[in-house]
Amino acid sequence: MPGAALSVAQRRGARCRAVAGFTLMEVMIVVVIVGILMSVALPAYQGSLQKGRRSDAMSALLDASNRQQQFMLDQGRYTTDMQELGYAASPMISDEGHYSISAAACTGGVIANCYQLTATPVSGSPQASDTRCTTFVLDSFGTRSATGTTAGECW
């Protein structure tokens, strides 16, 4: 068998060429699998980010509520002007800039006796597309509420 005998160098070269890379089909299969995983994972990730940013609204509402209570102790009334509470603007923008906080008299009352704070997503913020919890409300009685498709789960 003179033609069947391969040298060690020839056998090693043939083996190296066979495993030198990936075929186009293998690469395409990996791309499809990664695409499928991303289409499932990305919406869930974005939902988690939105849920995390909701705490910006809650903390801003609680801070404004504390300031309203302190203002009531000092002035004997509540206020709708967020600047009177020490904020730079009225309505005030939350620390992370995702929500606008405004104050109004509570339902059926006057601002001197009760208030209602509302957190609304700032236009252009990623929270503006959050349909599950669109606005958050906190009043002087401690009542918390929200609007959106899953309003009961927002607070």
- CATH architecture label: 2-Layer Sandwich
Reading the helices and strands in chain order gives: HHEEEEE
Average of per-residue pLDDT values: 89
Distance between the termini: 83 Å
Given helix and strand content, the structural type is: alpha+beta
The level-1 CATH class: Alpha Beta
How would you sum up the global shape?
rod-shaped
Percent in strands: 15-25%
CATH topology: Glycoprotein, Type 4 Pilin
What are the low-pLDDT stretches, counting only 5+ consecutive residues below 50?
none
Q: Rg, please?
A: 30 Å
Could you write a compact summary of the structure shown?
With 155 residues, this protein is of the alpha+beta class.
State the main characteristics.
155 residues; alpha+beta; 5-stranded antiparallel beta sheet; 2 helices; rod-shaped
Describe it for me?
Helix content is 41%, strand content 16%. It has 155 residues and is an alpha+beta fold. Strands 1-2-3-4-5 form a 5-stranded antiparallel sheet, with helices on one face. A hairpin with a 5-residue loop joins strand 1 and strand 2.
